[in-house]
Design a protein that fits this description.
By secondary structure, the protein is an alpha+beta fold. The chain folds into three domains: 2-202, Porin, CATH 2.40.160; 351-408, no CATH class; 412-529, OmpA-like domain (60s Ribosomal Protein L30, Chain: A), CATH 3.30.1330. The chain has helices at 2-17, 412-422, 439-451, 469-489, 514-520, and strands spanning 22-34, 52-61, 66-80, 87-102, 115-134, 137-160, 165-176, 191-202, 455-462, 497-501, 522-529. Strands 1-2-3-4-5-6-7-8 form an eight-stranded antiparallel barrel. Strands 10-9-11 form a three-stranded mixed sheet. Helix 2 (412-422) packs antiparallel against helix 3.
Length: 530
């Protein structure tokens, strides 16, 4: 018991020493038994055997939602079964530490709400003395002075009377971790419900972080720097009501804007009047508020050409810049680095008689025909150096020396290889499925196509006259598409492949013999220019 009393004193001293808002409460208590003897353990608010106790509490304000509560109570309990054959009478001295969740936290209810509920949860220590109680009389001692831990949780409500005084009711379930105090042992703890009603009053104003005389819980500006004069809400004084506190306001007696540190900007140019050399004329910060009418980067007071067209590069005096000295300003000079002394046109560029983009003084072919692509010397471009200018060369990236169109001639031996390859293309009978025996010849076709990148490959599918015209037409197209698909799968772009099925329309031999029909079932290939 002595240790229990010392613990309560330590809790009380700790709360008082904390420099935060502390409140104290005085309470009357009444308890209800919810243990093993009770046939209905949730039979609450049953005061047939009411015994009144009392206690006190201290509350430490943590934030708008939470208080830390230390509560010490003396609770009396008396209960007997309906037939009065069994019962218990007990006295509890309880010290609980609990967190209190307040609904008047500014989120759910206003902080100054008159009526507000709360929740409690925590635990502490209970000192128990209990007796048997039956036939309305107290019997033998069960537990004498046992001190144990307990769990506590509950809910309640507060009625605000003033800033510092409130009435409070709470119902707290206390669960001592001891089953035998009611002389019944079932393996679970015996509960009792503690009702408390009392008055709570503030002992201190609470923490004042910024030392401005307004406690944090009411301070709308809790981080005001020290020595700054504040109003009743804890916010700095703003004499000219411009939204900038006096201690930050460079013009505290004249309404201004936050952007201007509390000073006005009469001409609205972003430079406060106290720093503006031209306060009644909109200007630029870089010129201390004075204007640059033509926007050329030279202040009007120093600009010798104050009306230079927008976008014109200017020199230090504000006049148009002419880098190459050809008397054509840089902003319209399409050739701003023309060598000195060279005649130029209205655009500032040297003459270009053939309009090929190479000035006459650098053009080695000054009479090139209009539209002809030229190199840096002004002569017709010949990318593949085959003597045929690109504009006349049908194969500008592949040399074709000695030809009129600039394309390489397909060699006769290549044509023979291509014709020979077509003889080795075989299909399943009556189908468009390539036989594996065809693949080596088709690989050779791929090599030939890659050898001539400027040429396309024309594929023609043919059949004999066995079957209907329509079915032969369909089969020939399917077979030539199968060849096209195979070549495409080996990397040949489809754009270079032209596949057409002709059915039985173009025989190369008689269809009256098996040999002739075999010759007519074929896929022909030939290279042609794009």
């Amino acid at each position: 018991m002595k240790k229990f009393t010392i613990l309560l004193l330590i809790l009380f001293t700790s709360f008082i020493s904390v420099k935060a808002q502390v409140s104290a409460g005085l309470h009357l208590t009444a308890t209800e038994y919810l243990g093993d003897l009770n046939p209905n353990e949730w039979d609450v608010f049953n005061f047939k055997s009411l015994r009144v106790g009392g206690g006190g509490s201290l509350r430490l304000y943590l934030n708008p939602s939470l208080d830390l509560v230390a509560m010490g109570t003396y609770n009396r309990l008396q209960y007997q079964t309906g037939d009065k054959s069994r019962g218990v009478a007990a006295r509890f001295i309880v010290g609980n530490g609990m967190l209190k969740y307040k609904f008047d936290n500014g989120y759910i209810l206003k902080e100054n709400a008159v009526i507000a509920p709360f929740l409690l949860g925590g635990g502490g220590i209970t000192h128990i003395r209990s007796y048997q109680y039956f036939n309305n009389r107290r019997g033998r001692l069960i537990t004498e002075g046992k001190t144990i831990t307990n769990l506590a949780f509950g809910a309640g409500g507060r009625l605000r009377l003033s800033e510092t005084v409130s009435l409070e009711y709470a119902a707290i379930y206390n669960v001592p971790y001891f089953d035998g105090w009611d002389n019944q042992s079932t393996g679970r703890s015996d509960w009792y419900l503690q009702h408390s009603a009392g008055i709570v009053f503030a002992l201190s104003k609470g923490t004042d972080t910024d030392k401005d005389g307004v406690p944090d819980r009411r301070d709308k500006c809790p981080n005001t720097p020290g020595e700054v004069t504040v109003n009743k809400d804890g916010c700095p004084i703003d004499s000219d009501a411009d939204g900038v506190a006096d201690y930050q306001d460079k013009c505290p007696q004249v309404a201004g804007t936050a952007a201007m540190a509390g000073c006005p900007d009469t001409d609205g140019d972003g430079v406060s009047d106290n720093d503006d050399k031209c306060p009644t004329v909109a200007g630029l910060p870089r010129f201390n508020g004075c204007p640059d009418t033509d926007g050329d980067g030279v202040e009007d007071a120093q600009d010798k050409c104050p009306n230079t067209p927008a976008g014109t590069p200017v020199d230090a005096s504000g006049c148009p810049m002419d880098s190459d000295g050809d008397k054509v300003p840089d902003n319209i000079d399409k050739c701003p680095n023309t060598p000195a002394g060279l005649a130029v046109d209205a655009n500032g560029c040297p003459p270009d008689a053939d309009a090929d983009g190479v000035p006459d003084h650098l053009d080695k072919c000054p009479n090139t025909a209009a539209g002809t692509p030229v190199n840096e010397s002004g002569c017709p471009r010949d990318t593949d150096n085959d003597g045929i200018p690109d504009n006349l060369d049908r194969c500008p990236n592949t040399p074709g020396p000695g030809t009129a169109n600039g394309c390489p001639v397909v060699k006769e031996e290549v044509k023979k290889r291509l014709r020979f390859a077509t003889r080795g293309i075989f299909f399943e009978t009556g189908k468009a499925t390539l036989k594996p025996a065809s693949f080596p010849k088709l690989a050779e076709v791929v090599d030939i196509i890659n050898e001539y990148p400027d040429y396309n490959l024309r594929l023609g599918g043919h059949t004999d006259n066995v079957g209907s015209d329509a079915s032969n037409q369909t089969l020939s197209q399917a077979r030539v598409d199968a060849v096209k698909g195979y070549l495409s799968s080996k990397g040949v772009p489809e754009t270079r492949l032209d596949a057409t099925g002709y059915g039985e329309k173009k025989p190369v031999a008689t269809n009256k013999t098996a040999a002739g029909r075999a010759q007519n079932r074929r896929v022909e290939m030939d290279l042609y220019l794009k």
